Fold this protein.
Amino acid sequence: MKVLVAVKRVVDYNVKVRVKSDGSGMDIANVKMSMNPFDEIAVEEAVRLKEANVVTEIVAVSCGVPQCQETLRTAMAIGADRATLVETDVELQPLAVAKLLKAVVDKEQPQLVILGKQAIDDDCNQTGQMLAALLDWPQATFASKVVIADGKAQVTREIDGGLETISLNLPAIVTTDLRLNEPRYVTLPNIMKAKKKPLETIKPADLGVDVSPRLKTLKVAEPAKRSAGIIVPDVATLVAKLKNEAKVI
């Protein structure tokens, strides 16, 4: 059984990003980049399935600039067998990524595709669902537990009301949530081994996909700073301020 795992290169979650002075986007110059945490969970889950002898091969895929190779090497250090980079300097939006992944899926023919539920840079939470729609495959989003058996995937999902368990026929799409697993620490020997694993680079044109942006960002701005709170002497004063100043009652 082959599993395809999509990974994205994002600003490291420990970094406080800043808006560019012209408001055109985020300033990521000289900023530490790393694998999207949800995608790291997806890679870890694929590796655990392989360790359980459910999966025979793990293919990591990333779409973006040449530096995404570093992210793919990290995925291979965690345990992916090989990787594919769809290289482009165009700003990729979720639909374009889904179309690129569909083309890679058509080429690789995996029985399972695992993605992070969302990326921490744009928080779109769209790519997995769009990919499922393009492939016409069943999907399970926000997965906190995945069991593969008898040609089916039994997935426990995190929903507003608690947990939901569904059964999917393979091939299928699964997007990972935080509580699915805890990714392993990448050791130096595995980092060295990852450098020798095959990494294929292709272009969107090779897959016949148009990745031109459909949406345009007009302006990016930081949230307004919150004013400091005050202490009121009694309930009557609080009610008066809520009514007359805040005008919420």
Summary: The first helix runs from residue 37 to 51. The chain is about 25% helix and 30% strand.
